[in-house]
Amino acid sequence: MDATSPSFRIIGRGLLGGAIVLAAMTLTPAPANATRSPQCTLDTGRTTLTVKSGGLDRTVLVYRPVRSRGRSNLPMVLDLHGSQSTAAEQLSRSGLETTADTAGFLVVAPQGIIDSSPGYRWNVPYVTDPGGPDDEQFLTDTITTLTRMGCGDRGRVLAAGYSGGARMVSQYACDHPDRVAVLAAVAGLRAGAPRQEADGSFVPNTTTCQPGRPVPVLAFSGTADPVNPYAGGGAPYWGYGAEPAAKQWAVLNGCRRGPHASTVSEHVNRVRYSSCRDGADVESYVIQDGGHTWPGSTAIWPPTLGSVNQEIDANEIMWRFLQTHTDCPA
Hints:
This protein has six helices and 16 strands. With 330 residues, the protein is α/β, with parallel strands linked by helices.
């Protein structure tokens, strides 16, 4: 089926106050030489797409804000869920749909396919299943499909992820920097796979993250994160902590200044690397006593994941960061 003229059926519709529209659509990424549709045909609200990738039918939830009616080629914000989760749960946790209603960007929530009951997990290169689904190709196919539909602008993609989703988008930025305008990782910034040193400590394996161009990086990390400890440790696929990850991205981006720390609020500091190649700054928001959570989220989180900081709004910071590094409208 030609992704520039998709067919779909409505399977549910919310109240106008909530303005959530659910639809089912099956799409195959259009070839590289396909003609871009001049007008996005997606309804406003939430739509469920089935994108064919690697011979598999993959699920993607897309939210088109009401204010985008009549507009095409919107900035795209990928919103990847953590392990044992789903795209729908991630949209609830991040609240990016609400931010999109104000800012006017397209929210794109792909879903993993590896069973990790009660949800799914991502096949992150170097740390998961080398014979599993190619989730990097899936992200590329998703971006390509929405671009060919005329709905998203591939030059203005903010790749955001939480926990395992942050690992996934971090590695995607390492391997496909041309597809990512900005990387935003919540509770899971990586700069390549972990490598254990002789003394037992972990550092980023530089051979597994060699992007061909600088990528602006934004990260949010809690010092009391029980899953991905701020200082390092946890499961083997985490290894090193948040500071080495940010520092390595600063090296990759050729940053000449930093780290410079400043106080944002009572429990939040911002650590910034600047004067980077192509303006690809690295900014890390360090949340004292923060948990394995999304700052500013109004969702109900399991108590075992720690506290949710309400002094900052990760979504608003992400949007401003994307505006700073692209030509997104104010």
